[in-house]
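It would be a great kindness if you could assist me with a short task in structural biology. The matter concerns a single protein, recorded as an amino acid sequence and a row of backbone structure tokens. The record follows directly beneath this note:
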Amino acid sequence: MIELLKAIVLGIVQGITEWLPISSTGHMILVNELMPLTVLADAAANKEFVDMFMVVIQFGSILAVLLLYFHKLNPFSPRKNAYEKRSTIDLWLKVIVAVVPAGIIGVLFDDLIDAYFYNPITVAAMLILYGVAFLIIENRHRRPSVTSFEKMSYKTALAIGVFQVLALIPGTSRSGATILGAVLLGCSRGIAAEFSFFLAVPVMFGASLLKLIKMKIAFSLATASVLIVGMVVAFIVSVFAIRFLMGYIRKHDFKAFGVYRIVLGILVLAYFFLLK
């Protein structure tokens, strides 16, 4: 029962932080550090399950995107005319192009990244670094040139995909890296955020599938229950988080998220260097 409650907490954290540019993986690592998920008695098997849980729980967040943007992402919708259907297919092709860099690097170096970068110090450093980057970029006050997906070129989509590679390092934030990159490349905040959401679908699905394939332990009722509860909670919370972010950026910039990242990064460093 306690582990299910922990899964609920982790699901809430995942649902909120996946879409806000503040690093979901970073927050999940930190929460699990303070409140360890212990589903299996064997330490090695439990670590393998937790590592898988941290990634596969994102599947719930993917479903939230598909629910909220089903019409926009569906090229076969009977409510769309021929031009709109072509535009939707074009959008998906841009998403596929943008996914390629992170897909290649992720498959080749997944184990290496897990071994060397999944730790609180890396998370703290990346939180601070990209927090500063958000503040610098938002202070430039440049007028966006890409205000619709039709205006986004394939070259720009690929460049955003390169920025997404940076998010393989925990604490960076996948949405943070792609939004930051898209804004740097001239996209409006709304287009940057939505393209980041759409990129998450194949990236997070692929990452979840890869973790499940690599997992050597068999599912039990306990492990399956914890994973399902986490995914369901992440799905529900993600729906509200996405709606909040899209409403927020219509009136505000990303500076508040930059400040939050810096403050959290400093607190994490203080905790692990001074208190632990």
